[in-house]
Amino acid sequence: MVAGGGGGWYGGGGAGGMRSGSASVSAQGYPVTVGPGGATRTSGSNSSFNGITSTGGGAGGDAGGVVTGSPGGSGGGAGQAYSNGGSGIAGQGRNGGNTNCNGGGGGGGAGSVGETCNDSNGGDGGSGSQWPSGSGTYYAGGGGGGCSSPCTG
Q1: What whole-number distance in Å separates Cα of residue 74 and Cα of residue 86?
Q2: Which residue of 17, 57, 107, 138 sits 20 to 30 Å from the alpha carbon of 87, by its own alpha carbon?
Q3: Averaged confidence pLDDT in the chain
Q4: CA 142: distance to chain centroid?
Q5: Would you call 86 exposed, middle or buried from its count of C-beta atoms within 10 A (0-12, 13-18, 19+)?
Q6: pLDDT of 141 higher than 80
Q7: pLDDT of 1 strictly over 70
Q8: Tens digit of pLDDT for each residue in 17-73?
Q9: Closest CA to 77 of 63, 60, 64
Q10: What is the pTM of this model?
Q11: 112 contacts 138 by C-beta, under 8 angstroms
Q12: What HEC string does the chain produce?
């Protein structure tokens, strides 16, 4: 189950929290919530099934306002100004990437942290997580960070 991803801005949006596994169910109704992704600079919404919740992804940091990435299932990437990515939740996702230049950090993914920006280019989003194992299908990858002119990559 994957929650809604965070909206990016300068930093990439973090992936929605991912929980995988199996559950025994019977023929009856179950409460289900499908969390939508966040708009620009807004964290994603939670998804849930029968009392189990995946947390929405963190919003990407801004270029001049709130530059730190927001926490979430996976953290949003940092905005401009040498700031930090948001934290992810263990068991659901990873942290957003930091900035060591004028580009934005990549949003965290379920499989890896967002990349730190390099030479004003935005960092790549963190990888998704493969499920089921060996299937070649990945879920919950983070968004890439923005770059600062001139972009070289």
Answers
A1: 8
A2: 138
A3: 92
A4: 4
A5: buried
A6: yes
A7: yes
A8: 999 988 889 999 999 999 999 999 999 999 999 999 999 999 999 987 788 999 999
A9: 60
A10: 0.92
A11: no
A12: CECCCCCCCCCCCCCCCECCCCCCCCCCCCCEECCCCCCCCCCCCCEEECCEEECCCCCCCCCCCCCCCCCCCCCCCCCCCCCCCCCCCCCCCCCCCCCCCCCCCCCCCCCCCCCCCECCECCCCCCCEECCCCCCCEECCCCCCCCCCCCCC
Residue corresponding to tokens 């919530």: 33
Tokens coding 132: 């089921």
The count of C-alpha atoms lying within 13 angstroms of the C-alpha of 105, restricted to the half-sphere facing its C-beta, is 36
Q: Tokens for 30, please give them.
A: 């179950």
User: Considering Cα of 23, then 30, then 136, then 91, what sign does the dihedral take?
Assistant: negative
- Going by DSSP bridges, is the β-strand pair 47-49/52-54 parallel, antiparallel, or unpaired? antiparallel
